[in-house]
Design brief:
9 strands; nine-stranded parallel β-sheet; globular
Length: 237
C-alpha cells in the first residue's frame, strides 16, 4: 500500500511544534513540514532551531521538509540561493526527506542532490493550471529522474476526468522504464480526487491527506483516505 503523508502548515514556531506533537499519533507514515508557511522562513537560524526541535518528535514517522514557492502553488517567492541554503539546512539537520522543486533549475537541483548528506530528495513539479499531454508528463518525469532524485513527484490539475486517467497511465508507463524509482503523483481538485486513493493501482508510492485544513485542492481527510486505501487494497473499490 502507498504511504500517507499529512502536511503541517502552521505559521508560528509554537504552533508548528504543537502540531508535530499531535502528528506523532496520527494514522499516517509521513509528515510534511510546509516551511513556506512559517513566518520565520527568512531566518535560517530559526528554521534550523525549529527543525532540531521537531525531528525528535517524529522519530517513528518520515519527516519531509518542503518549501513550496509561488510558482509551484506555495506561499512565497525566494531567491534561488536562499532556497537551496534552507534545503541544505534541512539535510544537515537530519530530515528524512527534502522536497526540491524542479523549477528551481535542473542544474542546481542536480548539484544539490550530489552534495547532500543524509536526506533523500524528492524532486517535484506542480501544474495548477492544466494536465499536460501524457507524453509531456513522461518526458518531464524522465528529466526529474536524471537529476538523481530518490523519488519523483508530479501534481497536475485536471479539467476533465480523463485528465486524471492520463496522469495515472503516464505513471504506470514510467514504472516500466524505472522500476527502482518511487513515483508520487496526483491529479488535484475534486475531478482528480480518485488519483489520491487509487495509488496502489497505478504505482504512486505516497499520497497526501488532510488533518484540518489541507495544503492542496482535493486532499481527503486522513480517516477517509485511509479507509479508501484499505478498500482498494482489498479489491473492494
Amino acid at each position: 500500500m502507498p504511504l500517507i503523508c499529512v502536511p503541517v502548515t502552521e505559521k508560528t514556531a509554537g504552533a508548528v511544534k504543537e502540531r508535530m506533537r499531535e502528528a506523532a499519533d496520527w494514522d499516517c507514515e509521513a509528515v510534511e513540514w510546509r516551511a513556506d508557511a512559517f513566518e520565520g522562513i527568512g531566518d535560517p537560524s530559526l528554521v534550523r532551531d525549529l527543525l532540531r526541535r521537531i525531528i525528535p518528535l517524529l522519530s517513528e514517522k518520515i519527516l519531509i521538509f518542503t518549501i513550496r514557492t509561488s510558482s509551484d502553488g506555495g506561499h512565497l517567492d525566494m531567491d534561488r540561493g536562499d532556497y537551496f541554503a534552507l534545503c541544505k539546512a534541512a539535510d544537515e539537520c537530519g530530515c528524512d526527506m527534502v522536497d526540491v522543486e524542479f523549477n528551481a533549475g535542473e542544474d542546481d537541483v542536480t548539484a544539490f542532490i550530489r552534495e547532500k548528506h543524509s536526506s533523500r530528495v524528492i524532486v517535484s513539479y506542480h501544474d495548477f493550471e492544466k494536465t499536460p499531454p501524457e507524453d509531456e508528463m513522461r518526458s518531464l518525469m524522465r528529466a526529474m529522474v536524471r537529476t538523481g532524485a530518490d523519488a519523483v513527484k508530479l501534481a497536475v490539475m485536471p479539467r476533465k476526468e480523463a485528465d486524471a486517467d492520463s496522469l495515472m497511465d503516464a505513471v504506470r508507463r514510467m514504472h516500466e522504464e524505472y522500476a527502482d524509482i518511487p513515483f508520487i503523483a496526483m491529479s488535484m481538485g475534486e475531478t482528480g480526487r480518485k488519483s489520491r486513493y487509487l495509488c496502489e493501482r497505478f504505482g504512486s508510492s505516497l499520497t497526501f491527506a488532510a488533518v484540518g485544513e489541507g495544503s492542496a485542492p482535493g486532499q481527503l481527510p486522513l480517516s477517509v483516505l485511509r479507509g479508501k486505501l484499505l478498500e482498494v487494497h482489498a479489491g473492494k473499490l
